[in-house]
Write a structure and sequence with these properties.
This protein has about 240 residues and is α/β, with parallel strands linked by helices. It is built from eight helices and twelve strands.
């Protein structure tokens, strides 16, 4: 089975929609997605993801089912520098956090516990687990039992924070580390596929992460949403 995870285009967070740049990105994405032979498509309930999916689905001649748990992963945490989302910690704070890179314990840090981040993470993982079981793969420890192996392709249109939660569950990596050491740019495409080297036992392997080649084909540069300034003196780039 192949899972394709697509992040929404450049966002207008205030209005939960796409900016004009985001709409251009989504159109470029649709030219790529029209060639994907997907069996099923799913989308976050949030507007920016649905706007991104719309031109893709039209060209794919498909419809997408809305799944509530594909919404952005957004517990509000009291962080040292400000209150906000769980994946926005300054490097000096992150470096001093115990278990930040521990798949089993990353959410035990007190501010994350107080914000019930672990509970929300487990809630999403439970929904994802049920989804995977229904599609033939049951997680058993850190492997998957291929109970009904298949070559289906499934597409999710969602959000970067949520994408890292899904990858965490599939790859046995801490979501906290993925949030802070990777970035999937707007309309980027991540592809994960099963490998079944012994009958009945599968693992998910990432074939590509955050691919934005469709933007370069159209002469576009990936937008900056989700990143922070490359150098501190780059005043035209985001700092907070």
């Amino acid at each position: 089975m192949k899972l394709i995870i697509v992040r929404h285009g450049d966002p207008d967070y205030k209005n939960d929609s796409l900016t004009e740049i985001g709409k251009t990105e989504a159109e470029a994405l649709s030219e790529r997605m029209k060639n994907i032979k997907a069996h099923e498509c799913y989308v976050s309930p949030l507007g920016r993801a649905r706007e991104t999916a719309a031109p893709c689905l039209e060209k794919m001649h498909m419809k997408a089912r809305v799944l509530w748990w594909l919404r952005e992963f957004a517990p509000v945490v009291d962080r040292p520098q400000k209150t906000g989302v769980a994946w926005d910690w300054l490097p000096q704070d992150l470096a001093n956090m115990p278990y930040a890179y521990d798949y089993e314990r990353w959410y035990e840090y007190p501010p994350l516990q107080n914000a019930h981040v672990g509970d929300e993470y487990k809630k999403v993982c439970d929904e994802f687990d049920s989804f995977l079981r229904a599609h033939g793969y049951r997680k058993d420890g850190k492997i998957f039992r291929a109970e009904k192996p298949n070559n289906d392709t499934i597409v999710f249109f969602c959000h970067f924070g949520l994408e890292c939660v899904l990858l965490s569950y599939l790859l046995n990596l801490p979501a906290f580390a993925l949030w802070h050491t990777t970035i999937a740019a707007p309309t980027s495409v991540t592809t994960v596929a099963t490998e079944e080297r012994r009958e009945g036992i599968a693992q998910f392997r990432m074939l590509s992460f955050g691919d934005t080649s469709h933007l370069y084909v159209e002469g576009l540069t990936p937008s900056f949403s989700g990143r922070f300034r490359e150098c501190f003196t780059n005043e035209d780039e985001r700092m907070d």
